[in-house]
Amino acid sequence: METDKASQQRVAAWIAQYAPMRDAPDELVDPDGRPRAHWLQFLESLAAFGDIGLEQRFAAAGRRIDDMGISYRVHGETKERSWPLGRLPLLIPESEWRDIAAGVAQRAELLDQILHDLYGEARLVAEGVLTAAAITGSSDFIRPMCGVAPPGGRWLRFYAADIGRGPDGAWRVLGDRAQAPSGAGYALENRMILSRALPSLYRDMNVERLAPFFRDFRASISGAAQRADPRICLLTPGPWSDTYSEQVHLARYLGFTLVEGEDLVMSDGKLHVRTIAGLKRADAIWRRVDADWCDPLEQNAASRLGVAGMFEAIRRGAVVVANMPGAGLIESRALMSFLPELSERVLGESLKLPNVATWWCGRESERDQVVQALSDYAISGAFSDRLPGFGERREALGHALSSEERARLTDAINQRGVDYVAQEPVKLSTTPAWADGRLTPRPFALRVFAAATADGWTVMPGGFCRISNRLDARAVSMNAGAQSSDVWVLMSRPIEWSTLLPSDEDPPIVRALGNLPSRAADNLFWMGRYLERAEATLRIVRSLGARLGELQHIDLQGRQSIERLARLLIAWGAAPEDAPDMDPTQITWAATAGADNYGSALSVVRYARRAASIVRERLSQDVWQLIGRIETRLTRAGAGAITEPEALEIVERSLHTLAALSGLIDENFNRVAGWSFIDLGRRIERAIGTCRFARQFAGDDATVETLDALLELLDSQITYRSRYIAGAALAPVLDMAMLDPFNPRSVLFQAMRIDEHLAALPNLRDDGVMEPPRRLSIKLRAELESEDAHRLDAAIILAFEQRLMFLADKIAERYFTHGADGAANSQPSRIA
């Protein structure tokens, strides 16, 4: 920490270099150019860390983002981007926040009541307060929901308002979000990152906690379900969603079951989750799927994201949905133009947080006003994010239009004014951002969240702040390269610690396997298989690499093991088909980091990470981090030219990380159904791999060198030598590889663990009849236990291998979902 004088000098330098825009309000300096008191306090504490201390803390925040796997996807891209968190929070004093929270809560209540009317008696339209075209013109008006009483009594349960400061410095609403508001999870993750990077500032500034907000929301939706122990699901569009990482975090944090449409099914008038124990009722859904895609029977028939029959379940009052399908109607700009009047009519009071001035061109008087003074407005679509008739363009500033564009837009508004709105041009206010070691003003927009509770609306004390990298921004989008920022609401008193622990009596104690969704079981199973397959591939590469280093000292017979190791990599798809013409060293490296080879260690680890990404809410950060670390190491290795010793070192370090990952899963993963399927995948893949190793290296033509290679691949050399004084012999080696119940690498050991897992998993029916996978595992285990190593040959070993593959298929048939997007169907073909 630096001295007070040095800190003050640094703060003075930062402020002197800070140059806010003249025509927009700024968070750091007031209209008179003086720094605001709360920012001065923050900057003085920040400056006390010194340049080196600051960079260390900022770097730690960046590493934690990578470690936690916080990411997002730009629409249309296949690869996720690391989350761009700004280094400084947005600071809002308590007094100012009270006004924001009151305005957002009022607005949420108003919009909920409007939805009740529009989908109910429609008095607002009948009495002329609202124009019908302003409602029916929106694609988010869901006709099947008309006349439906929302289960739990709320159309809105989770609302968000995008706000920014107007030219006078007062906050205004830029847009309403109710379809499937995103950003709350990122706000939570931003807080976790920045509060750990700057813990003393976070504590000393009395920053209000976020946990009570999420606790209240969870309690509210749980109470609305009206069951003692409701099952609450977060319905996600899936891993290709732009904000899937956020959805995973929210499901994990709140304890909700993360489901995709194919995980749900309508049965007996209710929604159910497909689990390994059969269908289990879904009592509440927090949807992140747009309403038009929620039910292919009644809306978009092409949808694969929703579940057929969801709307009927809602009509029957069998499931609580946040937010109700059709709530997205309030996002239209056309409705925004009516809100000042509607607030007076519905609530009997003016809007506490007014929205940006809006004129809907579907009303003749407003259309004429807009056309006559087009240069004064920003024109955009009334019901969409695109300006009708102008391609991908989002809006048009009247004063910036060419004469031809102006004429075309004027004609379009006159012909079909219902499709257009005019708004006062918005220039976003600015907040300090950290760039190149200095403070710089950047435009921002703040998304504030509100949740309906039994006591009314509660507002998250903070929000999702997006900061533009352009000074002339009128809108801020993460897809356009914006940064995010934590939002600190500064209280006047010390803050008590808060968690998600319930405030009432403890819930019932549960020690069951858990009703694991079938899709989750599928992906956990394949994650286990791929991790084991990656380890087997790297073991072959390590063994081959070690022998290549001693090639000049190996006789002709000893070269057999090299040839067989290389042949095995080719057969597994780890090396290309033309690999026999390649140098063995090239084969080794292709099998390690060849991105184009579907069986290479790099490719298989990527498959494992893909499966893991679908069930991230069930994995600890450590597991996710270790899988990512292996992928990163192998990816970097494949991207650059490295020496043979460096390549072998990468292989060794990757094997060490895989060993750490296996230990983490074994020791830290709760022994519930999820762990069973990871371990089932590992055991089946290991048993199949051991059979293949045995056929390759312990056939009738086996030599001491090939048997040694087999023992090395099975990590059993030390045990074998401690048992047998003589060198490697065929029957003892086969016994250790195939039939030894004490060897954790043997096929029998895997069969024993597989049988134990299947015995513990739930049956679909309580009829006492053994299910097919268990029957197969018992027979396989018994035959291995009674087998004689002296009679083992390639044909018998192959038969065991095929039975293991058949058992894997039967496990999939019994426990997994087989939709078009299911994990089992999206995995690459099995390696022969």
Automatic annotation (TrEMBL):
- Gene3D superfamilies membership: 3.40.50.11290
List each copy of the Circularly permuted ATP-grasp type domain by range.
Answer: 89-467
**Which residue intervals define the domain DUF403 in the entry?**
516-816
* UniProt protein name: Uncharacterized protein
